[in-house]
Amino acid sequence: MKDLFLKRNISLALFLLVNFLFTYKYLERFTTWAPLLTIIISLLYIFLYRNTKLLKFITKKIEISFIVAFIIMCLLIWKKIPIETLNVDRWSVITSFWDSYFTNKYAYFAKSFAGNPPGPMPFYFILALPFYLVSELGFLSIIGVLLFYWLMWYKKVNSITRIFILLLILSSFFNLWEVICRSNIFFNASLVLGSLIYILNQKIFTHKTLVISGIFIGLLISTRNIFVISYIICFLYLWRTKAIQFKQLAFLGIISLLIFSLTFIPVVYGHFEDFKQMNPFIVQSTFLIPFEYTILFVLIAIGTSFLCKNRNDVYFYNAVVLFISIFIYLIYYIFLQGFTQAFTESTVDISYFIFCIPFALWFLLIDKVNLNPLRNSID
């Protein structure tokens, strides 16, 4: 019981820390009261966490109205803040990628308005293609929230906890930042969370479920390779507890690798020599953080997989390891360039901390009183 409460508190702390970073960094540009306001916001979240029964008055209609209000707010923000006025180039990385692709140029030679090359894997851009075509990438921010909300309904989370988590997401500063900047990190991470829920929900891994899982893994690793961490923790736990056999893991790995490789064909076809000069593997090991650190993150994931005592722990340690990985990335640049340049001047993209949020929030769905997850099994 104490172990569960500790992990729940750590999960909440991860949410608070990430929100603290966003709130402090961007509020200080407008007011000298930023530190105090940031602390007050965090205390309000803690109060709500300790007193979720206060949310009993919120009916299903009110709950849905929160979602509708959020969508309307997004539309108003996008109308008020043109995408071209943003200093964040995540949207530009996507548009420049597809602009190059549709003019028969090698997509990974593209440059954003800030001069950055495309770093994510191909399926990241494929997911964004419909929204590139309608000229509004911000819809991915909405879909990310709706996806997480649907996962809560799918797992039959009780209404008070569901509303509490929904309020955390909708009121968080990092979610507002994602909406304004047309970011999709919460969306991508929620997709991975959804795949883990599917995988961990399997009592027996049949040929069919292995193929489906392999397709999920191959596609989602082809968004951002940091999600390798999630699947390492998950499948090492399943293998260690004999929920999956080694030959099944090998088959799953082959399917995943095949699907992952296939996502590169539309981009690499006709540009194989260009691919050898510039590709997401080069970008991520050169422009972001040295390859040695990637190996370190994998080793941390392998080590923490042995700490998982049950399937719910897979979500918890995903949140922890993803947070630690990005924190190491932050510290690396602080030592390299100093705090002001790394944090304040945004050499480090703190939005990467959002990777851990869906997993931390999902672990918070576990009942405060019972060791079992809320209502139906969440694992």
**C-alpha geometry:** globular
Structural class of the secondary elements?
A: mainly alpha
Report the mean per-residue pLDDT as an integer. 91
Distance between the termini: 18 Å
Whole-number tally of structural domains: 1
Largest sheet: none
How many β-strand runs?
Answer: 0
How much of the residues is beta strand, in percent?
A: under 5%
Which regions contain 5 or more consecutive residues with pLDDT less than 50? Answer: 368-379
Structure annotation, total helices: 19
User: What percent of residues adopt helix (DSSP H or I)?
Assistant: 55-70%
Order of helices and strands: HHHHHHHHHHHHHHHHHHH
Radius of gyration: 21 Å
Protein name: Glycosyltransferase RgtA/B/C/D-like domain-containing protein
Transmembrane segments: 9-27, 33-50, 62-81, 123-151, 163-180, 210-237, 249-269, 281-302, 314-335, 350-366
Keywords: Membrane, Transmembrane, Transmembrane helix
Organism: Paenimyroides viscosum
Commentary on this structure:
Helices cover 69% and strands 0% of the residues. It is globular and about 60 Å long. The chain has one domain. Helix 6 packs parallel to helix 9 (185-200). The chain has 379 residues and is mainly α.
List keywords for this structure.
379 residues, mainly alpha, 0% strand, disordered C terminus
Describe the structure concisely for a colleague.
The chain is mainly α and 379 residues long. It is 69% helix and 0% strand. The chain crosses the membrane at residues 9-27, 33-50, 62-81, 123-151, 163-180, 210-237, 249-269, 281-302, 314-335, 350-366.
